[in-house]
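RECORD TYPE: inverse folding
INPUT: C-alpha cells
STRUCTURE:
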C-alpha cells in the first residue's frame, strides 16, 4: 500500500514497504518536489501502479506536474511512468541516454518527451536549479540523483537505502545500530561491487557529499534523513567494502523455508 508523508517544506514522499521474507522490509520511495515546475522523482513499483497513482493524486493533481526525474529504470521506479505520460501531455522525463535505451527494450519513451541530463549538468525548474550527480552507490549504471539548490535536499536514488524491521517516516527514529546494520546490509545486496572499490577513491566520493552540507538526504529506500544524519549515512557506506558479502538463500534453504511455511500454515 502506498502512503504519503511530508519530508520537509515542499517535498512529499510516496512510500510503500516491500517485505523480503526472512530479511525485513525495504521502503520504496518516490517524491513530489513542489517546484514552480513540479517534479515527480520516480514513479513507484510496477506492481503497485494504480495504488501509486491514487496516492500521487492525494498530494498533487498530476496535470500540474511538469517533470518526472527518472533516477533509473529499475522495476521499483518506472511503475506509473507511461500512465502519467499519457495522462499529462506536457510532462517530460529527465533521464539519461542509456536509460532511454534500456526503456526502448520494454516500453519506449517518446523522444519528444525526454530531457537528457548527465551528472554535473543542471536543469532549471522555474524557481530553482537541480544539479545531477552520480551517487556513490547504485545498482543500475544509468543512475542519476540530484541536488536541489533551493531546499538543500539531496535526492540519492537507491544510495543510502536500508533493510529494516519497521519503517518510520524519519530516519532519526532508527537507532544507530538499526540504521547502520540496515544500510550496510542493503548496500551489500544492491551494490555488491562496493566490496571491490578503492577505499581512497570511495572516500573522495563521500567527501563530495559531505561538502554539500545537505539539509536532508532522500533515498529511494530509506526514510527521510535530516542533514544532521549525513555523517552517519556516510559512515555506513564507508563500512561496506569490508562488510560480509551477501549470499542469497540457495535451493536447500528455500526448501527449508517452504517446509516451515507449510508446517506453520
Ligand atoms: Fe535500483
Ligand atoms: Fe530502487
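DESIGNED SEQUENCE:
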Amino acid at each position: 500500500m502506498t502512503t504519503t508523508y511530508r519530508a520537509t517544506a515542499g517535498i512529499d514522499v510516496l512510500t510503500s514497504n516491500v517485505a523480503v521474507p526472512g530479511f525485513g522490509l525495504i521502503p520504496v520511495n518516490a517524491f513530489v518536489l513542489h517546484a514552480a515546475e513540479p517534479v515527480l522523482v520516480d514513479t513507484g513499483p510496477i506492481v503497485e501502479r494504480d495504488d501509486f497513482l491514487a496516492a500521487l493524486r492525494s498530494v498533487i493533481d498530476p496535470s500540474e506536474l511538469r517533470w518526472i526525474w527518472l533516477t533509473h529504470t529499475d522495476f521499483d521506479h518506472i511503475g506509473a511512468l507511461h500512465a502519467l505520460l499519457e495522462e499529462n501531455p506536457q510532462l517530460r522525463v529527465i533521464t539519461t541516454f542509456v536509460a532511454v535505451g534500456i526503456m526502448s527494450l520494454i516500453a519506449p519513451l517518446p523522444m519528444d518527451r525526454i530531457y537528457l541530463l548527465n551528472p554535473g549538468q543542471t536543469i532549471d525548474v522555474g524557481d530553482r536549479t537541480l544539479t545531477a550527480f552520480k551517487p556513490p552507490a547504485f545498482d543500475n549504471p544509468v543512475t542519476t540523483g540530484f541536488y536541489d539548490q533551493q531546499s538543500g535536499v539531496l535526492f540519492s536514488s537507491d544510495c543510502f537505502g536500508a533493510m529494516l524491521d519497521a519503517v518510520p517516516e524519519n530516519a532519526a527514529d532508527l537507532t544507530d545500530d538499526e540504521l547502520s546494520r540496515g544500510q550496510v546490509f542493503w548496500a551489500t545486496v544492491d551494490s555488491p561491487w562496493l566490496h571491490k572499490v578503492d577505499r581512497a577513491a570511495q572516500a573522495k566520493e563521500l567527501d563530495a557529499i559531505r561538502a554539500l552540507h545537505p539539509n536532508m538526504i532522500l533515498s529511494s529506500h530509506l526514510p527521510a534523513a535530516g542533514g544532521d544524519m549525513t555523517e552517519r549515512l556516510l559512515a555506513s557506506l564507508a563500512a561496506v567494502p569490508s562488510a560480509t558479502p551477501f549470499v542469497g538463500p540457495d535451493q536447500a534453504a528455500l526448501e527449508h523455508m517452504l517446509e516451515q511455511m507449510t508446517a506453520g500454515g
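NOTES: Residues 176-190 form the longest helix (15 residues).
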